[in-house]
Specification:
single chain, alpha/beta, 4-stranded mixed β-sheet, two-stranded antiparallel ribbon
Length: 507
Amino acid sequence: MTTASTTADDRSRYHPDPSVITALKTPRILTREVLAGLVVALALIPEAISFSIIAGVDPKVGLFSSFIMAVTIAFVGGRPAMITAATGAIALVIAPVAREYGLDYFIATVLLAGVLQIVLAVFGAAKHMRFIPRSVMVGFVNALAILIFTAQLPQLIGVPWMVYPLVAVGLVIMIFMPKITKVVPAPLVSIIIVTVAVIVFAINIPAVGDQGELPRSLPELFVPNVPLTWETLTIIAPYSLAMALVGLMESLMTAKLVDDVTDSHSNKTREGWGQGVANILSGFFGGMGGCAMIGQTMINVKASGARTRISTFLAGMFLLILIVAFGDVVAIIPMAALVAVMIMVSVGTFDWHSIKLSTLKRMPKSETAVMVITVAVVVATHNLAIGVVVGVFVASVMFVRRVAHLIDVRREIQEQDGLQVAHYTVEGQLLFASSNDLTTLFEYAADPDRVIIDLTKSHIWDASTVAALDTIETKYAHHGKAVEFVGMNDYTTAFHARLTGGLGGGH
């Protein structure tokens, strides 16, 4: 009975609102989803080309990968409205494979990474998301905003001066249009108006076509020609594992961010294995693989207001149609129009509340430090996974230090049955960081022959604490005094009984 209830609750928790069926029956919602998918598709083109260049492969590899992954994740992903495609983080991780071993080994790396993501998801990798502190999440979001903005700088430096007023026009449209109407996504209107202005006034500025040649044919099935040997595995496995971990971490963090933006829940485990399936299909069609894209996801969810899988699916379909059927039209879209969209995404992504003076005054310094360190590492390495790992590590160390200082030991001399007894009350969480100093807080020589250590207000978490208690008992024994531990809770009693005397410091 309980199991059925829990399953029903889980289904309700992950039930998207609005659903795909509701969206298809509601013209207003469907229009929003369709237009959002079109905006995302336009924004994906230059990004996919750029990431292909970073990875050292032909632009069509990134473009086809983005199409296949977006369409696939629309069906198998756990976070509706999230966009998955070729990304810079993945390109950086696996670029050495293409450079040193060629395209076949490159695609084999992508395929193995997809398999590893499915395995990691099945074994509960997504559940570890709860161990990422809020300060790291804020740092992750702010670092993403900075990276999105800095990624636009090459399109703003050393370019014709007309780029700047056109970017400004695009920004003005996106700032003020939502105040007038939200029927049509402001980014789409901005792209159209800036493009028309460039064509009408024959303004010569960089366009999408300048980023790389667009493919003219559909993607074909691709099976990498690599020997199925141990040597091949040793070559691709390290890169595949790195790609799997970076892709999962970035995707799950992005899913969590979208959950917060939309006030809804998503199935992180499904998202994890869905990313793996999308990468495998991408590899079999000659794609470079990828993960969730924070910039395009924010365009879809925040700027365009999309909420269903329809927008994700159509982003992939529109991308394919645009590059194959309307490549010549897409090629003339000015980069200034897309830069303006990405700048707005950057501004909207950054958590401005986190750097307000009032917030910084209230927030513990350790929390602010973790946020700043996460941002600094991500921006310095251009790797979100490294930044998050470092942020979690720093947060953990600071937490342990904080807990270590919360231990309190009080001594009181009492009289029982006419004899003096030293009664110690230990209060706090006992783990390696605090138990190392625990042995120094007792007066072994000065105490009477009987000693009681009350652990009612404390909890033993690890073997280091049991070893410390054994050491305390041994020190008192050397002085001919007996120690009695009282007040242990059930867990502490069982844990202590299992380990005491066997850690080198006891009887």
